[in-house]
Amino acid sequence: MGQVSVSGALAVRGRGSELDLVLRTLRRSRESGAALVVVRGEPGIGKTTLLAEAVTQATRLGYTVGQAAAHDGDRIAPLASLGPALRTGTDPLVTSAEFLDLAPVIEQPLWLAEHLATLLTRRSKRDPLLVVLDDLHWADPLSIFMLRIVPARLAAAPVVWLVATRDIPGGPAELVAASAAGLPVHHLELHPLPEEALQAIAADRLGEPATPPLARALRQTGGNPFLAVQLVDGLLAPGAAQDAGRLYRPGLSAASGSAWPRSPPAPPRSYALARCSAPASRWTTPPGCSTSRYPR
């Protein structure tokens, strides 16, 4: 699995085959109609990063993109999750006036789905569309209902639906995928990154290859890229000399070009993350480990 470039950012490592599937889906949709891509994986495994690169590539291919992320409190407000995806960006998928026109049917889900399908069909005649929703497992019920109905209604339109979720049996992603009658549905399960990808992440951020002690510490992340990034970024943080001396090389310049400070600091946040995330219990909460440290 090789490097995938990201405009204005570091490379996406270890997800070449997954991104290739997304790109092929985007290219085919322009000619063959709608498709659904469901990305699954544990917290921190790289779902959001994959979606961000997909958005970058879709924009290059001429897609108009609407994207949003669901949040834990979305369930109390109808369309709180999908609604922002319709209205984001400089060229939203749905205009302000069109969005306001949906309000009278907000309590009539079938009518709402028909209205929304009509708007997106009309919009897709200008440009192909990519609709992205991260953290689908937190989406409100009305947004999930729209995702069950509208994609199938737009089967002939150049619209790609890209959602990411934790792998929850019987969760919203399974309902959405099961309802996508007549659409190509692609399932992407993100697995832990191999050691070489973790070391490539470290080299990207440090500007040189990881030392053996750092490589050993990276293995303790269990292949979770979020934890790997936090670990390496801790070495680049101001006052990281103590840990940098063990895992990097004291006195060498960091990515910023400045020498490591010599005063003994407190351990950086990344080491707390690594201690709290052994592969066997990575997403539990061991004593002294706050759940607020973890990604959604």
TrEMBL record:
Span of the signal peptide: none
Gene3D superfamilies: P-loop containing nucleotide triphosphate hydrolases
Pfam assignment, any one: AAA_16
Compositional bias annotation for Polar residues: 282-296
Region Disordered, residue ranges: 253-296
InterPro entries named among the record's database cross-references: AAA_16, P-loop_NTPase
Domain named Orc1-like AAA ATPase: residues: 13-161
Keywords: ATP-binding, Nucleotide-binding
Molecular function in Gene Ontology: adenylate cyclase activity; ATP binding
A GO CC annotation given for this chain: cytoplasm
This protein's name: Orc1-like AAA ATPase domain-containing protein
